[in-house]
Amino acid sequence: MPQMRPRKTVNISVASCENDCKWPLQFKNFVIIPLSAKPFWPFLERTENYIRLIVSLAVTALLAFFFNCAAVRADQPAKAEAPGLSSVPKLQLRDLQDQAARFNSVLSLPEWESTPAQVDANVDAAIAEANRQLETIAQVDRKSATFENTVRALNDVYAKILQTGHRVGVLEQAHPDPKMRSAGLDATQKIDEFLVGIDYRKDVYRSIKAYLDTNPHLEGQDARLVEFAVRSYRRAGLALPDEKQQKIEALRKQLASIQAHYLVNANNAAAPLKFTKDELEGVSDDFLKQAKTGENEYTVDANVPPQYIYAMTNCVKEETRKSLCIARDTRAREKNLPLATQAIEIRAQLAGLLGYESWADYQEEVKMAKTGKNALNFEEQLKTALEPKYQAEISELKKAKASLPGAVSNEVKLWDWYFTSALLQKQKYNIDTEALRVYFPFDRVLDGMFKIYEHIFQVEIRPVDAPAAYENDVKLYAVLDQQTHQPLGLFYLDLFPRPGKYNHFANFALINGGLLPDGKYQRPVVDLICNFPPPSSDKPSLASQQDVVTIFHEFGHAMHAILTTVNYVQFSGFNVPGDFVEAPSQMLEYFAWDKKVLDSFAGDYRDPSKRFRLKCWPSSKRQIWRPKHALTVASSPSVY
Ligand SMILES: [Zn+2]
User: Fold this and answer.
1) Which residues contact 253 (CB under 8 A, 6 or more apart)?
2) What does the pLDDT read at residue 71?
3) Residue 628 in this model has a pLDDT that exceeds 60
């Protein structure tokens, strides 16, 4: 067992799913729902969900308590030259690894490939190694089957092969070289096929079954691991006739390949649109300077988030916003529409073959919702509950839109959301979101956010002198226990856009936390792949307040992964049911809405002693679309 002192915070990680955050940002923040809201009740029928809810609320209360402590300290006048992590000496990986060993734990980094041939060779080697491990399980004879040499050994196969799968997945999504991204995609497909194939290894299943037939009495995580293994075989169709099984296996492999290609196509699709200066009315001179591609020609790539979000927020011309919105939402349409159609057909076939009424039922079975019907009911109840608030807000946005000179319609379309929201903030609350950027140079935001997280979770976050990763600009950090200095995990920050890079904001697992076969504890490694505004020749990266919320959110996922203490990778970190995975980060992003938190780090990049002044508005009548506080600037934000 790893040597871990009890932590003050509650570890929420209990089950398995993925981590991606693909909701449009404005929507993501529009629907932060108190978990105690009435529409949530149908999910409380099961005791485990009730417990999960209570834990969630308790965590919220705990975080609020810890935050209050942090905020008191943070409210002290800021020093003009906040030290920042940039001035902190970097830790050496070797030292951290030695330190981890003292706690019977292992800290390691992915061994990044640098050529496509290496990627191919390493994936083949990883699959061969996994096959050897599976053979060993298959050879367990009926009488000697134990938890360790069957169910636990199968967990170890996944733990190992997933390290390779996660690594090549990041190459596929974020390597700067298209050849490496392509090699990453091929490798991902090989691993996906292999993972599907594990479910159909009857020799392995026989050994697992031999152990289950002993009617073992298990508790806690061991019992849950067995429960998950049984569920996984059932969901793979292993109880069905051979012919059906083979069909299901082939369809699942095909589906995995389609899904991988779909995402890569979306990443690689450039959507450059050319505009005149007049068509971009409302954007800054800086933006025009960067977008200039010819005589009165400016190019905005709708597939580069900072460019897209900026233009959608600031451009007055509705036609421009409309064309950008359509270009973004239909990117890779020619390639992806046929894939989506195929995927829908395959999913329906799979659901039918496996005896589910719909793909939704198959998918929801392993989530808190349990059935497609529950999920739809939840959404319907949510919609009904939000309707009055939605109507009140939409009427405000309509008024804002109608107030523009020459407005012909007050209808708020999809491409109006960013723009009318910013307009309303200016008109009603005197907030100029663009002018606020000068107070959020990204380095200060990161330093400030790390301090908040350090306080909440009683950890230290330190930069690490990193060996070469998949990209030169990627930074590496370590998280350590504040008292014992045990290294708890590592995370990469990959902050800015590049051609062909995953084009949203997400936390990618690289190494899951969990017990190794030798009893040591593997500490986790994650990678935050983001697309914040890059620095320019004369300015640092300047975040919007929404960007600040986003990095608080994504970093919440990183902490969720790194603070794990569970035994098995299937339950590690953010491997929780898909309809729970956002909850911790949604609670943690709340801190980016608090005045005291913002005051603790925000400062004009040209002179950090210049701070903005904010008022918190607790009155619900004056809230707009934010959950508790709306922000306003007491004087012109551009000068103070
Ligand atoms: Zn998220």
Assistant:
1) 192, 193, 196, 197
2) 33
3) no
pLDDT above 70 as % of the chain = 82
E strands, 149-283, are 272-275
Q: Which amino acid is at 628?
A: K
Residue 62, φ and ψ in degrees, nearest 5? -65, -45
Query: How far does residue 620's CA lie from ligand 1's centre (Å)?
Result: 26
Q: Give the integer Cα–Cα distance in Å for 223 and 229.
A: 10
DSSP, collapsed to helix, strand or coil, labels residue 106 as: strand
Q: How far apart are CA 47 and CA 44, in angstroms?
A: 7
Predicted confidence (pLDDT) at residue 382 exceeds the cutoff of 60: yes
Mean pLDDT of 577-585: 94
- Please tell me the distance between residue 96's alpha carbon and the centre of ligand 1 in angstroms: 28
- Strand (E) or helix (H) holding 462: strand 459-465
pLDDT at 33: 29
For residue 32, pLDDT beyond 90: no
CA of 367 relative to ligand 1 center, distance in Å: 16
For residues 268 and 501, the answer to whether their CB atoms sit within 8 Å is: no
Which residues share a beta bridge with 462?
478
Residue 146 has pLDDT above 50, yes or no: yes
Please name the residues in contact with 205: beta carbons below 8 A apart, sequence gap of 6 or more.
Answer: 233, 238
Alpha helix positions (H), 8-115: 25-30, 47-74, 93-102
Q: Which residues pair with 477 in a beta bridge?
A: 463, 491
The predicted model gives 60-72 an average pLDDT of 41
Distance CA 37, CA 385 (A): 9
In three-state secondary structure terms, 10 is coil
User: 339: CA distance to ligand 1 center in Å?
Assistant: 25
What distance in angstroms lies between residue 506's CA and the mean position of ligand 1's atoms? Answer: 7
Task: Report the pLDDT value the prediction gives residue 9, as an integer from 0 to 100.
Answer: 31
- Ligand 1 centroid to residue 336 C-alpha, Å: 24
Ion ligand 1 — residues with CB < 5 Å: 21, 582, 585
Furthest-apart CA atoms within the chain: distance in Å: 83
Where residue 613 falls among pLDDT bands split at 50, 70, 90?
low
Q: Which amino acid is at 64?
A: A
Tell me the mean pLDDT in the region 461-487: 96
In the reported structure, the alpha carbon of residue 28 is separated from the centroid of ligand 1 by a whole-number distance in angstroms of 9
Closest CA to 367 of 37, 39, 18: 18
Q: Using pLDDT thresholds of 50, 70 and 90, give the confidence band for residue 574.
A: confident
Rg (CA), the chain: 25
Answer whether residue 79 shows pLDDT above 50. no
Kindly give the distance from the C-alpha atom of residue 285 to the centroid of ligand 1, in angstroms, as a whole number: 33
Q: How far is the CA of 98 from the centre of ligand 1 (A)?
A: 33
Phi then psi dihedrals of residue 361, to 5 deg: -65, -40
Gap from CA of 551 to ligand 1 centroid (Å): 10
- Residue 2 is given by DSSP the state -
The single residue listed with the structure tokens 């591609």 is 293
SS3 content of the chain, % helix, strand, coil (to 5): 55, 10, 35
Read off the tokens for 216: 């073992």
Burial 399-433 (b: 16+ CB within 10 A, else e): ebbeeeeeeeebebeebbbbbbbbbbbbeebebeb
Question: How many whole angstroms from 294 Cα to the centroid of ligand 1?
Answer: 39
Short-list 487, 531, 490, CA closest to 509 = 490
Residues sharing a CB contact under 8 Å with residue 386, sequence separation 6 or more, in sequence order: 31
